[in-house]
Design brief:
- The complex is a heterodimer of chains A (857) and B (122).
- Chain A is of the alpha/beta class and 857 residues long.
- Chain A is built from 27 helices and 39 strands.
- Chain A folds into seven domains: 168 residues, FAD/NAD(P)-binding domain; 123 residues, FAD/NAD(P)-binding domain (3-Layer(bba) Sandwich); 88 residues, Enolase-like, domain 1 (2-Layer Sandwich); 59 residues, BFD-like [2Fe-2S]-binding domain (Arc Repressor Mutant, subunit A, Orthogonal Bundle); 57 residues, no CATH class; 148 residues, no CATH class; 159 residues, Sulfite Reductase Hemoprotein, domain 1 (2-Layer Sandwich).
- In chain A, a hairpin with a 4-residue loop joins strand 24 and strand 25.
- Chain A starts with a strand and ends in a 33-residue tail after the last strand.
- Chain B has a single domain, classed as Rieske Iron-sulfur Protein (3-layer Sandwich).
- Chain B has a four-stranded antiparallel beta sheet with strand order 2-3-4-8. A three-stranded antiparallel beta sheet of chain B has the order 1-10-9, with no helix packed on it. A three-stranded antiparallel beta sheet of chain B has the order 5-6-7, with no helix packed on it.
- The longest helix of chain B has 7 residues.
- The chains are: A alpha/beta (857), B mainly beta (122).
- The interface between A and B is large, with 37 and 43 residues.
């Protein structure tokens, strides 16, 4: 067996190994990977998300093949191309038959005095971001969010990503760019000007046409950055993102030829000047030219993998198209963006009001598309890029004029048009995968062609390709129902069916599953009413609805009493506290202004609720796909800025919509003034007070894909406001897919929020009377689910540890004390949480705020 | 374990002892209950066609004792229960996980004697 040694496990090294494994299914190659970093390859393109919601694990590129010998934290320190061995940082010599250099690049740090100071970073690895995060958190914790600045040196693509990261970390970012505009490589002057305006509106301070002269420590422990025009900026951190240089030191030391501007010189087969040594990715200079994007690196990885398995791949011209969303601003650039082709013409549409800029570069006869720049709105990027080098179907201006994208059908794209530039997948390849029957869904298309698996920006286009091939994306609920949730809802509404058995027998097949049963249960709850545990309904409910509590990872439940609008009386607080103490529950305040009680055994739930109901509480529906919370600020009651009674409205809305079963959970908020302390715009329906009424925002959410709600109407009086929300909720319940939150639902409506406004405010479909009637029925039919259970011995019988030994506690449930917190035994894997041992969090929580955790009394 | 065995009526001297669990009508079709059988938690299910199944109650993916609280249905005609935590499906007949055939839970014999459901040794 022959051995290939791969130096470096970045995205390109990972791709090479993956491709080789695919092309060498019999395992004729032994693969040894020597990696400098202490973690396997991760998605560096998505690096910025690491300061947001993503963990290192989320970014890890999938599927480590056990047949690959991956040595982390073991960089290669020397190569001997004659003996065909490499020496590693651990002093080992590893022999190879073929060697692939994929060492990537290192950030370029200009020789600015002070660049070695503490709190000066580069932006390249997860470790860099960990350091940056720690420094930013220290600065924010002493001064507050937004009060300390961070300076990013370099206003290119990566610099703006870094600025976004600083902003997410609570620092106020400055960007210093030597060129006269941001992203000088990708965009032209007009696009750069708009980009600067849009990101400045978002709070970035941009300094173009200046360089950084020095960085010095100031007397308070911060940094002072001096620019070439004399400007001094106070900053807590400085990040260099002024470009990259190929990490070619290893190759130079081994005597390999390098390019004039660095990089290991390779030919179009990625062969270096030494036999049996290849170079791919950012370290490679293909015929002297280096590439700092992942797509050309992937192409090189494929070339070498093919070469080692008898193929004859060659690296051809690389696609340097870029599309990204920076701080919410779309920026795209493709082909000859700077009109360098002799005779090229530029067609520009600059709309400062809409905040969009589009430029197409066309051949001298205006018939062939050569390139373009889009800023502010890049929705036509995939279509336009598909026409690169091809004859245009019409006047270039019509392609970028408003609604121009619709004028050009996807069908008009040539087969050679590249849809996924990261993985070089053409429209032709996608169409073939579809017509051969290999792929009938977007996930299948991704799996078999790899399109959309790197940056993901072409995924919406994949759905269009499927549609253009006549494949309808299935809306079937599951294997038991070929109909969508909305269609089933209509069937149940019209036929008046009241049981799942009846519905599955008549309109489905089999006996149902954990997908369709809860979905039908939710529709029946809205349309037929009744208790969720009545009769057959009980068998349809997810465990949370079945036990009216939220199952936690050890099989115990959490309990959330409703506190409408987040209001609670002192006596109420005491009652909740006593219940928590008496049943040994861990207590935590939720983001929705509730008190969550954790660790309740299933057989303790009725006794816990007896006490809560007696104290005047009712179910908070934290377990249901239903209205969870309406959060509020104190409004005119207390706040000197409040202009309306936000608490009063929040309580009224919560009492009106409590218990409404819906396709997904619903959250709401009411703010008493434009300062928006209730964070209403991150809710499914959010209300913000104005001097004369209420503004209503729809379709916001936090979670995996945070979204701001969109304004649907302003200055509404309270009656109109409530009526509009009534109709919004009922229209959503009626037409959304299972587990589709309001934001994607609105997006899926043809015409989006405008269509929604027409339906619920102008009654364009003539259904408002029916929606109003349904909501009235819901409000009139509400009853507390927990109170009903406590009054019904048959329902109570479910809440038992063992049907044949009701008094015996479940012996598998154990709790441990973890740094003063009562938690389920058996920690989950994760970051070390003994922060005191890391020198963090040494100050204990005030004793008064800590409830002693004993065994249940 | 003696105390538990007495409480659940298992005859510890016999490897094939049957533990009475509950009256048949206590089992709602397509929903489970949890029983204590020789000290082990066992999920007992009744399907729509009145067949009875018993599986060990501990979900091997989450290690929590919860399978009896899952939704019962069928996938491709196979009767299954879905774990309420991470939703893997276990075939009621074999205890195998549909998502990963290398993972499964023990199954137990079940019978009805004079209207009482009884669970045997695995």
């Amino acid at each position: 067996m022959k051995t290939v040694v791969v130096v470096g496990h970045g995205m390109v090294g990972h791709r090479f190994v993956e491709s080789l494994r695919r092309l060498d299914p019999d395992g004729t190659w032994r693969v040894v990977v020597l990696a400098e970093e202490n973690r396997p390859a991760y998605d560096r393109v998505a690096l910025s998300s690491y300061v947001g919601d993503a963990s290192a694990e989320d970014l890890t590129l999938d599927g480590h093949d056990p047949r690959v010998e991956l040595h982390l934290d073991e960089p290669v320190t020397a190569v001997d191309p004659v003996a065909r061995t490499v020496r590693t940082g651990k002093g080992r010599d590893v022999a190879y038959d073929e060697l692939v250099l994929a060492t990537g690049s290192v950030p370029f740090v200009p020789p600015v005095p002070g660049r070695d100071l503490e709190h000066v970073f580069v932006y390249r690895t997860l470790d860099d971001l960990d350091g940056l995060r720690a420094a930013a958190q220290r600065a924010v914790s002493t001064a507050g969010a937004g009060r300390r600045a961070g300076v990013v040196v370099g206003g290119g693509l990566l610099g703006l990503e870094a600025a976004n990261a600083l902003r997410r970390l609570g620092l106020s970012p400055h960007v210093v760019e030597m060129a006269p505009r941001l992203m000088p490589v990708q965009v032209d002057e007009g696009g750069g000007a708009l980009l600067q305006r849009l990101v400045s509106d978002l709070g970035l301070r941009v300094h173009t046409g200046v360089s950084t002269s020095s960085i010095a420590r100031d007397h308070r422990g911060g940094l002072t950055v001096t620019l070439s025009d004399g400007t001094e900026l106070d900053a807590s951190v400085v990040v260099f993102s002024a470009g990259i240089r190929p990490a070619d030191a290893l190759a130079r030391a081994a005597g390999l030829e390098v390019g004039e501007r660095g990089g290991v010189l390779v030919d179009d087969r990625c062969r270096t000047s030494a036999e049996h040594v290849w170079a791919i990715g950012e370290v490679a200079a293909v015929r002297g030219r280096t590439y700092g994007l992942v797509a050309p690196g992937y192409a090189m990885a494929e070339v070498v993998a093919e070469r080692l398995t008898g193929g004859d791949g060659r690296f051809t011209e690389a696609d340097l198209s870029t599309k990204l969303k920076l701080l919410g601003v779309d920026v795209a650039s493709f082909g000859d963006a700077h009109a360098a082709t002799p005779g090229a013409l530029e067609v520009t549409l600059d709309d400062p009001v809409a905040g969009t800029y589009a430029k197409l570069v066309v051949s001298d006869d205006a018939r062939t598309l050569l390139g373009g720049v889009l800023v502010g709105d890049a929705s036509d990027y995939d279509t336009l890029r598909g026409f690169l080098g091809a004859e245009l179907p019409g006047d270039p201006m019509s392609l970028i004029a408003p609604a121009g994208g619709e004028a050009v059908g996807f069908e008009a794209l040539p087969d050679a048009a590249q849809i996924c530039s990261c993985n070089a997948v053409t429209k032709g390849a996608l169409v073939e995968a579809i017509s051969s029957g290999e792929a009938t869904t977007v996930p299948q298309l991704k799996a078999c062609t790899r399109a959309g698996t790197t940056c993901g920006s072409c995924v919406p286009t994949l759905a269009k390709v499927l549609a253009s091939c006549g494949v309808e994306v299935s809306t079937a609920l599951c294997e038991h129902f070929t109909r969508s949730r909305a269609e089933l809802y209509e069937i149940i509404r019209v036929t008046g069916s009241t049981t799942f058995s009846e519905i599955v027998a008549q309109y489905g097949t089999g006996r149902g599953c954990d997908v369709c049963k809860p979905a039908v249960a939710s529709m029946l709850a809205t349309l037929a009413g009744g208790h969720v545990l009545d009769g057959e309904s009980a068998t349809l409910q997810d465990t949370n609805d079945h036990f009216l509590a939220n199952m936690q990872r050890n099989g115990t439940y959490s309990v959330v009493p409703r506190l409408p609008g987040g209001e609670v009386t002192p006596d109420g607080l005491i009652a909740i506290g006593e219940v928590a103490r008496d049943f040994g529950l861990y207590t935590k305040i939720t983001g929705g202004q509730r008190i969550d009680l954790f660790g309740a055994r299933v057989d303790d739930l009725p006794a816990i609720w007896r006490r809560l109901v007696d104290a005047g509480f009712e179910s908070g529906h934290a377990y249901g796909k239903s209205l969870r919370t309406v959060k509020s600020c104190v409004g005119t009651d207390w706040c000197r800025y409040g202009v309306q009674d936000s608490v009063g409205l929040a309580v009224a809305l919560e009492l009106r919509y409590r218990g409404l079963r819906s396709p997904h959970k619903l959250k709401s908020g009411v703010s008493g003034c434009a300062r928006e302390c209730a964070e209403a715009r991150s809710k499914d329906f959010g209300v913000i007070a104005t001097e004369t009424g209420w503004n209503l925002y729809l379709g916001g959410n936090g979670g995996f894909t945070p979204r701001h709600a969109e304004l649907i109407a302003s200055d509404l009086d309270t009656t109109t406001l409530v009526r509009t929300i009534d109709r919004f909720l009922m229209f959503y319940v009626r037409t959304a897919d299972r587990l589709q939150r309001t934001a994607p639902w609105i997006e899926s409506l043809e015409g989006g929020i405008d269509h929604l406004r027409a339906v619920i405010m102008d009654d364009s479909l003539g259904i408002c009377a029916a929606l109003d009637e349904q909501m009235a029925a819901h409000v009139a039919g509400y009853a507390d689910e927990w109170a009903a259970v406590l009054d019904d011995p048959e329902k109570l019988a479910r809440f038992t540890s063992f049907v044949n030994a009701p008094g015996v506690p479940d012996p598998t449930i154990e709790f441990v004390d973890h740094l003063g917190r009562r938690v389920p035994a058996g920690m989950k894997d994760g970051q070390p949480t003994d922060l005191a041992a890391l020198g963090l969090g040494g100050v204990p929580i005030t004793d008064g705020a800590r409830i002693p955790m004993g065994a249940p009394a | 374990m003696t105390a538990l065995d007495e409480r659940t009526g298992t005859d510890p001297s016999s490897g094939t002892g049957w533990t009475p669990v509950c009256p048949l009508e206590r089992l709602q079709p397509e929903r489970g209950v949890c029983a204590l059988v020789a000290g082990e938690p066992v999920a007992v299910f009744r399907t729509h066609d009145d067949r009875l199944f018993a599986l060990h109650n501990v979900d091997p993916f989450s290690h929590a004792s919860v399978l009896s609280r899952g939704i019962v249905g069928d996938l491709g005609g196979t009767p299954v229960v879905a774990s309420p935590l991470y939703k893997q499906h276990f075939a009621l007949e074999t205890g195998r996980a549909l998502e990963d055939s290398g993972v499964g839970v023990a199954t137990y014999p079940v019978r009805v004697v004079n209207g009482t459901v009884e669970v045997g040794s695995p």
